[in-house]
Every structure is written in C-alpha cells, then in structure tokens.
Amino acid sequence: MTDYSLSPWVRVLSSSIARFGELKTAAICYALFLAASLILSSMFYYVAIGELFLVDILAVVFFSAVVSPLIISVLINSIRQLDASYAYLDSATKQEKLLNQTLKDNISRLNIEIDERKMAFHAKHRAIEELRREIAERKKTQQELAQQSMLQRSIVDSSPDLFYYRDNNGVFAGCNKMFEEVMGKSSSELIGKTVEQIFPNDFLSEVLRTDKEVEQTHKALTIDVGYEVDGATRWFELRKLPFINDEGDYIGLLGFGRDITSRKEAAEALETAYKDKGKFIATLSHELRTPLNGIVGLTRMLLDTDLNKQQRSWCNTVFSSAETLGNIFNDIIDLDKIDREQLDIAANSINVSDFINDVVNFAGLITEQKGLEFDIERNGMLDIYALLDPTRLRQVVWNLINNAVKFTQHGKVTLECSRENRPEGPWLVIKISDTGQGIPQEQLSRIFDMYYKAPDLQGTNAIGSGIGLAVTKALVTAMKGSITVNSTEGEGSCFTVQIPLSLCIAPTEQSYVGRELYILLVEDVPLNAEIATNLLEQRGHEVLWAETGEDALSFVDTEDDLDLVLLDMQLPDINGDEVARQIRADSHFDNLPIVALTANVRSAEEELEGISIQGALAKPINTVKLDKMLADLFDIKQAQCNEPQLTVTDEALKNIDAHLLDIETIEDFVNSMGLVVFRRSSQLFEKLNPQYQQELLTSLNTGDREEYKSVAHKLKGAAGSVGLNDVQLHAKVMEYGAIDESDEVLEEWLLVLADKINEGQRALHLFLQQLE
C-alpha cells in the first residue's frame, strides 16, 4: 500500500496477509492470540493474586481459543475492506492526479490557443489596416488616373489637330473632338465602325492603301490629305503610325492630322507669284537679250575690222561686258527655276572623254586671252558613255573655269578629270584649281551662298553678281552630285565637283561591221560563258568554248584559225596565267591575241606581268569595253542604228529593291543581247543555283576548303553576269574567307546566301517585268 497514514500494526497485518495469505495469517494470529491470552492471564493472576491457577488460566485460554477466530475473521475482513478502500482511494488519487495533469495540459493548450488567437487577432487587425490603406491608395490612384485620363482627354479634345485610333481590323476605337468635327459625326457614330462605313468611296482606296503600307512596313507615313468639310476643302498633314505591342506585333493604327489649309493656300499663292515672276523674268530676258545679241554681234564685227589699239581695247571691253551680262541672264533664269524647283536635268548618252575635250578647247581659249597657262590631267577610264546633262554640266565647268581665270592674274589654271569606282558605282570627279588670289578661310563657308561675293585683296567686293556659285551648286545638287572648295589665301583655290555616272551604251552601238572572228572563250562558269557567247555571236563572231585550261591548250594546238583568246584567269585545273605562259612558249602563237577576263584587272595584270597579252576585260563584261577592245585589235567599226535604247527610269525601280541588283549591267546586257536572251540567262542561273549551293554544302561537310572557295568563285561570277549584285558581293566574301574562317561562319554564310539569292531573284523578276 502506498498510503503511510495507517497504524503500524495494520500495516504489518496487511503486509502479512499480502505475503502469507489469509489462512496462514489467520493461523499465525490465532496462535498469537492464544499465546497472548496465556501469558496475560498468567501475569494477571500472578500479579493480582500472587499465585497461578491452572484452571482459570486454561479457562481464559479456552475462551480466547473460542473467541479469537471470530475476532481474527472480523479483523482480516476489515483489513481486506480497508485494503480495497485504500486501493480504490489510491486509484482515485492517481486518476485525480492524471486528471489534474490533463487539466493542466488542457489549460496550457488553451492558454496557447488564446495567445495564438490574440496574435491572429492582432495580425488580422494589422491586415485589415493594411487592406484599408491599400484600398485608400487604390482609390487615390484611381482618382489620379481618372484625373489624368480626364486631363489627357481634355488635351486631346482641345487639340487643334485631329486624332483617331483603329485596331488591326480597321475598326475605329477612339478619336478626339477635332476628328468628330471633320467627319461630321459624334464619337458614338464613329467608334466600332470600319473605314468602309465612314469614308466616301472616292477617298477609301487611298486610305486602305496607306493603311496597308503602314501595317506591312511598321513605319510611320506622312501624307497631305484634302477632305470636304462643310462644303469647303480643308487640307491636313496626316501622319499614320503603327501601334506595336511588346512582342512586336501590329495591333492597330494611330492617326494624327494637322490642319494645313492656310499653308496650302499660301503655297498656292506663292506658286502663282513664282509663275508671275517667271513670266516677268522670261519677258525681261527676251527683251534684254535682243539688244544684247545686237551688241555682241556688232562688237564681233568691229573686232574683225581694222582698229587701232585703243579702239580694239574698247571693243574687247564691250564684248566682255556683253558676254558677262549674258551669263548673268542665264544665272538669273536658272535661279528662278531653282526657286520654283523646276530645274530639270535632261540626261543623254554622251561620251565623257569627248565632253572633256570640248571643255578643254573652251578653257584653252579663255586662259590664253589672259596670258595664263592651262593644264589638263585625266585619270581612269574616261572613254565611256554615261547618262549626263551635257548643257548643265558644261555650264558648271565653264562657270568654275571662268571664275578661276577671273581671279588669277599670273600662273595657271588646271583642270583634272578622274573616274573613281566606288561601292555605290562609278563617279566623275572634276577639279578646277588656280594660282590666283585665293579665298580667306572665314569666307569659305559662305562662298556658295546666294548673292554673296567674297572680298578681293583690297577688301572690296569681288566683281560679279554673287549668284554664279549658288546656281552652280544647285545644278550639281540636281545632278545628285556635290561641290566643295579648298583655298589658301594668296596661293589659289580648288573647286571639286563629284557627279555619279550612270553608264550606258552609245546611241549608235547596235550593229557592227567588220570581219568575222573565230574566238576561243576560256570560261569555267557556264552562265558567264553563255552570256559572253551571246555578246560575241550577236556581233557576228564564231565562239569556241573551253571550260578548263587543259581544254584551252588543246584547242589552241588543234585549231589553226583562231583569231583571239578570251582567257578567264581563275580556272578549275590550271590558272589563266599558266595557260597564257604555255601559249606564249610556242613561237607559232606569238601573233595570237590574248585578252584576260577577270574580276580584278589590276590583280590580273600583276599575275600576267612579263607575259605578252593584248588587254584585260573586267567581269561581268561591259559591252562598251568589249567593242572598244575589238575595235582596237581588229579595227571593227560600229555601224549607226536609230533603234531606241533601253533607259531604266526611276518609275521602273519604284517598287523594286534596286540595291540588290546591278542595274547598269542588266541595262547594258539587255540593250546588247535583247530581253529574251537575258531572261534565258537568268533562267540558267536559277537552274545552276541549287547545284552551286549543294556543292558548297558538300565541300563544307567534307572539310574541303579549297573546293568551297572554288565554288564560291564560280557563284560570284555567275551572279555578277545576271546583275545579282548583292549575291555577288556575298559570294565574294565567301570566297575570300573560305580558308581562314571557322566552319560555323561558313555554314552561316550558306544560310545567308540562300536568302540573298531568293531576294535577288525576286527583285530581278520584278525588274524584268517592268522592262517588258
């Protein structure tokens, strides 16, 4: 038992029962009771009476023996019940303790839950506060946005410019008050409608065309639009812009229109004034030129008579003054045309070398009259035909030469003419330099200004009207060229004129007279060979084609009647310089002319140094150079022909990516061979193109860089022959980088090549359609 508040004897008895059991414990207790009664009775009698009485003692013992079992039974039963009670109490105590512990745990958990609920409540309270603040901020932002939207809407509506927005389906999604006013409809009547439902039919086609252009190009477009508003035409400068999302997709169109009616009216009034001024200048020029021509004519007649020195001096002064006044009239008329933007350039096919000779004759005369030296320098191939306005260009050069002579007292005037081949094409560069007084540096920036005259050495204004150089610059600009000046005061000036050259054939170069030639053409690119053969056969010659150097040498050995060898410098087996060297090794062929065909004339001349050749033609072959070569070697003259020649106009190039093509080469070949023959050549390129691309890919996969370079060279020549300029330039890059660049770069070039060929052929087809 666990409760130690019981008496010791009860504990002992309980322990005995628990240890020995009830029977043994009862027997022990019974024995103890008898012994105790015997001892106690004996002690009682002995103490009380002084002697022991056996009968009495036995009676007591007997009584104890009879009563003890009952007492022991009651005692054991009581102890049993007492144990059960204590056991129940002990169990109850334990349960109470467990219950108390559970209660404590529950109270602890409850306290924790209460704390957590308090924290959750505080968090909820804070979240509610945050939400309230966020709601307040959102409301504030919405109010600000609403205010900004109202402000923007007010600005847009109050703008004098019209504004509208249409989605990618052409449906109006927004506009301002000005657009409503112009259209004569409210926004509710406009929004949700298409352009077909809004604009009149006579206006609709232009709207759809410009919309489509903006959508396709993703570029802004500005046009002047006249629209009927309240019975009167109002003009707007309308700017259409593409509306692009973050992914770069076209999702709509923005339109902004500014009323330029007053500007248009002012421009029309100004145009009327210009016309009136032009009529006045033309009338004045006519009325003044009549007596001026009389003065010039009579003065010339006087100069042819016998005059004394003073009279001749006076006549020369009169003649020079009249000529100067005539030049001023020309400048005034041109100035009027410049103001009205009616300065026309009439381009004709002229021989550049002949033009320069005419200028030289004029310059020699006027410099000789003043006692000055005149030098002429020519650089580059100038014996060519180009589309130029000889009158305007002559006016420019004569004006500059006159100025050079006017401001040079001693020394010389130099005319330098050069042809420069630039990436964008050939240019004619003319420099007029003198050893005169020069122009102060601070005056150079104003020398081309209208009515400006630089002061002379004495500080006074120079002689002249001050419009000559301004008109000269305008003429050069109209010819798409440029003019610059360099000068050192006291040493002289140099004016540089640069004019782009549009090469063409001579107006009479269509038929040929002379003996028939037997020509060996050595060319490894079939397309180049076909075009060269067509050019030569058209001129009445017989052509023998060799594709390799070995074939060429065999033909030279076996064909006795060869008149000419046109030799490509880069062949698949042996190069052209080796072929030429072996031909010249046999003295039997010393008189057989050899002309090199090459993309780089200077490089070919270096390779053939020491080998006797009769010239070099650049590829693609220029018909003018070909004819000149034949004329120089065989005295083959060209017969005149009045058939019209093809001239490519800006209109023909309007919707074509002309930068992808070599227009001059195509124009040259079409004029020489005809459109049908040239189209056949372009079709041959289309046929050969997949083969070239496959060969390039195969050589790249096998690691054969030399083969890659060789095929790129062939492709370059073939593309150049049909005027695919962009393809030719890219093939040139592939050829020169074939050895040194990585496989990844060569593979990327192949992918770019395919795109460039597709784009170039598409542009060529469109261009040829324009020529039909």
Q: What Rg do the Cα atoms give? A: 58 Å
State the low-pLDDT regions, or none. Answer: 508-512, 639-644
Largest sheet: 5 strands, antiparallel
- The N- and C-terminal alpha carbons lie at a distance of 129 Å
Number of helical elements: 23
Shape: elongated
Q: What structural class do you assign from the helix and strand content?
A: alpha/beta
Strand order of the largest sheet: 2-1-5-4-3
Helix proportion range? 55-70%
Number of distinct beta strands: 20
How would you characterize the overall build of this protein?
It is built from 23 helices and 20 strands. The chain is of the alpha/beta class and 772 residues long. Strands 2-1-5-4-3 form a 5-stranded antiparallel β-sheet, sandwiched between helices. Strands 7-9-10-12-11 form a 5-stranded mixed β-sheet, with helices on one face. Strands 16-15-17-18-19 form a 5-stranded parallel β-sheet, with helices on both faces. Helix 15 (549-558) runs parallel beside helix 16, helix 20 runs antiparallel to helix 23 (743-771) and helix 21 runs antiparallel to helix 22 (725-736). The longest helix has 105 residues, at 54-158.
